[in-house]
Queue: 2 jobs
Job 1
Amino acid sequence: MKIAVLPGDGIGPEIVAQAVKVLKALATDGMKIELEQAHIGGAGYDAAGDPLPEATMKLAQASDAVLLGAVGGWEYDKLPRPMRPEQGLLRIRKGMGVFANLRPALLYPELASASTLKPEVVSGLDIMIVRELTGDIYFGQPRGVQINDKGEREGINTMRYSESEIRRIAKVGYEIAMKRSRKMCSVDKANVLETTELWREIVTEMNKEYPEVELSHMYVDNAAMQLVRAPKQFDVMITGNIFGDILSDEASMLTGSIGMLPSASLDANKKGLYEPSHGSAPDIAGKDIANPLATILSAAMMLRYTFNNEDGATRIENAVKKVLAQGYRTVDIYTEGTQKISCSAMGDAVVKNL
Ligand code: NAD
């Protein structure tokens, strides 16, 4: 298992170090891994004048999986757009062809009180959001700001999905649904947007290949509402890039802390980019207080989806559950009566419980 490790910026190096610790602990039990580190984001800009240095992209391409921390920082906000850390992220996703973003929103019983919603609304919550990642209005051409006929500035972005792009993400959604409760809700805005009318048509047509999956459709505005009204009605949700961006952040807050949520982005051959759902949290960087669990759980997803190592994935996930049951908390999930520990101590606690 060749894994490229890209810590990035802010809390990235601290949280990635904990996930590496966990992987190395599994390796002492016989799992063969090869880890190699490189720069991305602001760290890439500082080291090589590019948020995605050529050496980093080469390493990512030569690896089976990439474990990434986070990118971004205030000190880079004034750089020209192509040099900003976030461009490194967009480019590596595009370069690796990872079009399927999996974001689970799972509520651990011990953290039910961390959610802003009532415990009875969220307890037992286990949603998997499958978001298309390389198409849609974020990448569609034409785009830009131009002067229109009336001589005023006009911003343009283009929502675009080809049939093959929809088919390949729908396939990922159906296959994940088959491994879970066989229920999938496709989210679109087919009443207004032709692009998503095509999306609905193709997802519906592909249901013939997966007749065991119970498919439903929902407009994105309703889905946003239902996620806070009755989130447990959902199991797998599949949607396009922009809707998925928004809904997955919304779903993440159902669970209380963004510091708990992993993500996986896969290509057609299950090669993947694994990263926590949160950003680089510059406000708490360097203090050893960040929650590393989202990154550690991303490493578990890596074992499951890229390396087909269900045993290793489950060991990590169970260790995280045990640590929470033992009452250990980083500051973001701390509540009275639990024990506040540092980022590195949380990594150690997970290793101990493997
Ligand atoms: P953020 O996710 O970094 O932080 C939001 C809030 O959540 C902050 O208060 C932060 O302290 C807290 N937080 C986040 N992760 C945490 C963790 N693991 N443990 C404890 N607390 C945590 O989002 P932001 O503040 O909007 O953005 C900060 C920077 O991160 C920006 O430069 C942004 O562009 C970048 N960003 C990067 C990614 C990524 O790398 N995938 C994603 C989002 C934002």
Note: The longest helix spans residues 163-179.
Job 2
Amino acid sequence: MILVLAGGVGGAKLAQGLASQLPPEELLIVVNTGDDFIHLGLHISPDVDTVMYWLAGLNDRIRGWGLAGETWNFMTALGRLGDPTWFRLGDSDLATHVVRTQRLACSETLSEVTRHLSRQLGIAHHVAPMSDDSVRTIIHTTDGTLAFQDYFVRLRCAPTVTAVSFDGIEKAAPSPAFIAAMADPHLRTIVICPSNPLLSIDPILSIPGVLQWLRQRRVPAVAVSPIVGGQAIKGPAAKILRELGRDVSVLGIAEHYRGLIDGLVIDAIDEITAPAIEGLGLSVTVTNTVMANLDDQKALASVALALAAQIADGAHA
Ligand code: FO1
């Protein structure tokens, strides 16, 4: 049993790579829901949908989010009515949000709805939200406090970030599948995807009990660095880390996850930093971490699993 912690596009790509090599009963993908929000009366779960669409092979590879071959008639009509169009909901994507919103209104949990949507999309593997409780990522900036999608999409990550917080986190419980995985005696490995550590992974780690469990775990945990050559592969991770005074490097990522992981996969371009990361007590694998196609995704998944297996072997030796 492999537990994967994932955010948006980086998480979806590695999750798809892992899913292509592991049988459904051996993989649980727990996804960030701090980006969720209610928009136009609909419950949008962007990271859950991104992971589902990639696993279903329905994703738009260029945008990263949303469905391939999407049309935008709803957006055009919405604009004509004078309603806000800064957050783009494609015509086909809209169906996902309508079904989710309807089912939540009928008292289904987000886990149940995600399971239903996954099955309908033909996904064999288990995708679960990090929590069924409402957690909302809040971005504190020099321009004021912003809801996540306001900062991320409407303002295109332009404001300078001073802090990130997660509204509702103190009262949030891990989702039932997440709780079961943490207690599963067959749990073999934890993989942290190359998702934004501050915006996508930290919300998952901040759910009460999760950090403590990770610190006390008896199985290897490995992460794949989302920072390559001092830059984020996608999104504002590098910008935010810099604004918060953090080290924008693979060493900075190693320090961020210190005590929570045993190994880090870094890109060949960062090879020179490997000894410094090992100096923090972590095992390191150097490889190509930029996932341009499914072959890259599968290869990176294999490398992450091999690093975890190597750490487990070392622990037993
Ligand atoms: N990201 C954008 O940059 N612009 C959008 O208009 C947008 C719409 C959107 C609709 C549905 C959905 O599931 C995701 C969407 N995203 C959009 C991505 C979203 O903002 C994600 O939270 C981020 O990609 C962070 O993971």
Note: The CA atoms of residues 47 and 298 lie 20 Å apart.
